[in-house]
Amino acid sequence: MASISIREHIRWLPGPPEENTSTIVLTSPGRRFVDIRIFLRPGAARARVSSPDGGVLAETAMTTGNGAPDACSHVARAKLTRTVVDQSLPMATLSPSDVDWAFAGYSRSSEPREDGSRHAAWLHVVDSRTPDHSERVVIDEADVYPYRDGEDDGRSRALERGRMPHPDTGVVTDYEELWVDVEPQAAAPSPAEKARCVVLELGGEDGAAGTRGMVVCLGRRCQGVVRAGVEFALEQWVWEEEGGWRRENHVGGLSLPCAEAIEDKDLEIGGKVERHGLVWTVMELGEV
Q: pTM of the full predicted structure?
């Protein structure tokens, strides 16, 4: 099932929830994903970022906790008091220091347990923090729980719980991430009003050693990452009611075929897309 997921907060236990990034994950029906986490620019009072489904701008709330019981019956977390802070997301061309983490690959999950939770794993084939190397494949795993906090806005939420190195200390630490899913919407009026999904992949026989990449376009969002040796790059595009598609963020000197994935009407499964000497393969194509 295709999804657009936004992270609402991360919590490094036993600390309070916080969020200092714009984190958006696009996942295709074939479970290929691109996860991009851009630091919000320090500032004050409101974080205005393009909503994942395009169009209006969304506010990102910073959160603090006071250690009260969780609203979810089987998961403990801190009670939140929400303070909106003004942190404008950088636009267009960014520097590598603006990127918290960006990666892409394949995901899988177990069948739901009795409490509705499931075990999930994400295999990173491209990672901003890890050079491409067959002996250093990155796999992260976690348990994902359905989440209900009493506020029904019609969107599905999930609480992810796992362990990974803390970015400040390097010590492997328990964490929680709260995610909300946004239903993909068509990027332009269509008779069926279905969102389009395109996945391009670079690697294997199509790429030189150490060259891997993935682009996922889903509804009104398109984003991709690519690594060639020590070089890494990413792009994010968004479709808006006024103006159509625009490139929202770009990092690095490498080029990605996001525009081709968005605009090329002649794509077909197994077809090739060449971008600056790199040949990408169309892995998925359809409507969701």
A: 0.83
